[in-house]
Each structure stands twice: as C-alpha cells, then as structure tokens.
Amino acid sequence: MRVASSHPAPAPAAGELLGHPRGLYLLFGAEMWERMSFYGMRGLLVLYLTDVTRGGFGWSRADALSLYGWYTGLVYVTPLLGGWLADNVLGQRRAVVIGGLLMMIGHFLMAVPDLPEAYWLGLPRAAPLYLALAFIMAGNGLFKPNISVMVGQLYPPGDARRDSGFTIFYMGINLGALLGALVCGTLGERVGWAFGFGSAGVGMALGLALFLWKARDLLGGIGLRKTDADRAQIAAARAAAASQGTGGLTSVELQRIAVILILSFFVIFFWAAFEQAGGLMTLYTDEKVDRHVGTFLIPTTWFNMVNSGLIVLLGPLFSALWTGLAVRRLDPPIPLKMALGLVLMSLGFVFMLGASEQADAAGKSALGWVVAAYAFHTMGELCLSPVGLSMVTKLAPARLASLLMGIWFLSTAIANKLAGVIGSQAEEFGEFTVFLGIVLATGAAGIVLAALSPVLVRMMHGADQKTVEPVPPVPAAVPGGPA
C-alpha cells in the first residue's frame, strides 16, 4: 500500500531507462561534470598552496589546511541561501544553471592566479585565488542542493526505487571525482597548476552545456519556478498548519524536520573524518607512503581515485541491494544504514593506524594500508551519503525541500571546517594520535545512532515506507518554461 505524503512531485517527462526515469541520467551527467571540476580543483588545492618549487604559494601545512578547512566548510554553507532562493524565487532548474555558470568562472579564475600584482590594482597575490574560491562557493550553493532535490522529485511518494536512484546519482558524483583526480590532478601535478585548474573549468562548462541541452526534454515540469496555483496551495497549507499553532507546519512535518536535523548532526562525525582525504591524508600519502609500483611513482592525487573508482564499481551493487531488500521488506531503516556508515568509517581509520606505525618504524608505509582505508570509507559513504540525500527528499515538506537540503549540506560545512582543524593537529600530536581519535569518535557516533534508530523511525511517520508493487509512471508534463 502506498504511503500518503505531503510531497507531491512535479510530473517529469514520460519514459524510463533501466527501470528509472530518464531524467535521472541527465542529472547524473550534469552532476558528474560538476563534481569533476569541484574535486579536481580540491585535490590540487593543498598541494598548490604548499608548493615552493613550481609556482605555488609556499604556505605551511597548517596554513594550507586552515584555508582548505574554511573553503570546504563555506562551500557547504552557501546551499542554505541557494536552497531558499530556489524555493522562493528561482526554482531549482534556474538555480542549477546560474550556479554552474558561477562555478565555471571560479575555476577559470583559479587558472590565472599568477598575474602581476599591478593587474589586480595592487592587491596581494592571493587576491585572485580568494575571488575564485568565492565564485565557486556561491555557485555551489545554488547548484548542489537543487540538483539533489530534483532527483527526489523524479519519484512519486513511496517509490521503492528512490534510494536506488540516489545511489545511481551518487555514482555520477564519484565518476566525476574520478575524472577530476585523473584529468585535473595529472595535469596539475605533471604539467602545471594552471592546466589542472583550467581543466576543472572545462568540466563545469560541459556539465552546464549538457543540462541546458536536455533539461526541457527529460525533466518536464521538474525544477521549474512555482506557478500561482502552486503558491496558493502552499499558502493554504501554511494557513491550515498555522491555525494549529505550529508556525505553518503540521506536527508530523515538525517531527520529520527534527529527524533531518538529528541525522545532520551525526553525519558531521562522518564527514569530518572522510574529508581528511583532501587534507591530512593527501599530505600523509605525499610524504610518508611508498607510492612506487616498480619504477613508476604514483601521483599523490591519484589516490583520490580509489574512493571514486570504488563508488562507481560498488554503486550498482548497493543500488540493487537496497531495491532487493525493499521488495523483500528487509530494507534497514535510514538511521540504521547511516549508523553502519559511521562504523565502517571507523574501521577504515584502523588501517591508517597500521600505516602510521609502519611509517614510524620503517620511514614509509605500504600503499595497501591507504587503499584499504579508502575501501572501508567508500562502503561507509554508500551506506550514508546517497541514503541521506534520499532521506531529505522524503521527509522535507515540498515547500521547504531545497532549504532543508541546504541545512543537510550545512552539516557537511561544519564537518569540513572541523576536518581542517583536526588535520592540522597532526603537526603537534602526530598522525597516529589523530587517526586514533577519529576511530573512537566515529565508532561511538555510529553506536549511539544505531541505538536511537527506533525512535527516529517513529518520528518519520512512515515516510521511509516503500511500495512493493510496481509504481505506475507519472503522467508527462508539457515541456516548456525556462531552463
């Protein structure tokens, strides 16, 4: 029996591919190219900031990781504003287009950081760097939450394919990250920083072009600005809820929003650990891991491909797993899946403890330790991140969907800043102590979340229940309207 919901989805264009709406694969492709640009630049950032021989800034590790933490934190704060603008002014589709354009400009600005100071009216050499990061942060705020919300709108309430669809979408994220490490990372490390950053801008341009080309055909009414009828319906719902003294929200909606906030708190532990990959683990791999395979020295940025490559390989398996378990009524509740993700993250850093001990004893650690850590982090990510995106689209009231997706990403912002602070402690306390702290913190958070799971499931009021019979296709909307 299908569960009733207050989340009516706009009608997508008719047609499916491999059991999912065709629009999913457009959003997959657009997100893939955007993440190629984002992760490609991110993987180079701390190496560029600490470089002293190839035109980098020559900053200390602590200063580089501090900026990295501020950047990766603030880039996930801006989705709050981007979500509000989409819900109230732009619509998700226009927000994605404007966001992609801003990010493209930012990446191309990263490719020209070494122009003479006079060109920048006497401003410090780092001025174009900061300007570029500001463009990327603003663009990400518009792009990131709204493309995720549109994925959720492709599926009617109760559709058992939604978690699976988000896992497929998440493969696009990580295929992009894989391309970013391979293309941007290789060009940046082996050819020149400007080539790496410039290739990130090209990737964003490709994603934007793809979205503009096919959005109208494959998304139908998904993501368009609200009509007068939509606004009237929303106003009526708010008035009805306001009469109950709940500030425009029903008691069920309030409890569901509380679940989003509680789970957002727990994922801070996960992402604060996971984001060591772009900071401390990148520097550790660069300095203390034997990266030779025969006579070939593996570029440091290539290690970021381990996580992305495993997501692409394991994503279909997890997608099939969630759908298969849902059909058999054995699918674990969302909080329990996310608790498992935290435990797997903890186990991954146990391997980094082994790497640290070996490096202290022998000067370098085997690369197998790092690869094993990334493998467990990847399995944890597949249990937590795409499931979390799906969760927000299930629980958020439709009129607040993008804003609450922004709040979900705010937890990632806090975690990224915290990750920089944690990583910088390695200079004072050593890598082993930092890795041990991460093992204990993420493991404890996972156990506590698992214990809270039954309470959180009750507060969701059936939003995570799924139909087991095939869901009939949603009637197609008439294509048209702004992209």
Explained architecture:
It is built from 16 helices and six strands. It is mainly alpha-helical. It has one domain: Up-down Bundle (Growth Hormone, Chain: A), CATH 1.20.1250. The strands form three sheets. The protein has a two-stranded antiparallel sheet with strand order 1-2. Strands 3-6 form a two-stranded parallel ribbon. Helix 1 (about 20-50) runs antiparallel to helix 5, helix 5 (about 125-155) packs across helix 14 (about 400-425) and helix 9 (about 250-275) packs antiparallel against helix 13. The radius of gyration is 22 Å and the shape is globular. Mean pLDDT is about 85; it is low at about 1-10 and about 470-483.
Termini separation: 35 Å
Unreliable parts: 1-9, 468-483
The number of distinct helices, counting runs of at least 4 residues, comes to 16
Question: Oligomeric state of the chains?
Answer: single chain
CATH class: Mainly Alpha
**What is the CATH topology classification name?**
Growth Hormone, Chain: A
How many domains? 1
The side-by-side strand order for the widest beta sheet comes to: 1-2
CATH superfamily: MFS general substrate transporter like domains
| Largest sheet entry | 2 strands, antiparallel
CATH architecture: Up-down Bundle
Average pLDDT level: 83
> SSE order, as H and E?
EEHHHHHHHHHHEEEHHEHHHH
In percent terms, what proportion of residues is strand? under 5%
Please count the beta strands (DSSP E, at least 2 residues each). Answer: 6
Radius of gyration: 22 Å
Net shape: globular
Q: What structural class do you assign from the helix and strand content?
A: mainly alpha
Q: Please give the share of residues in helix.
A: over 70%
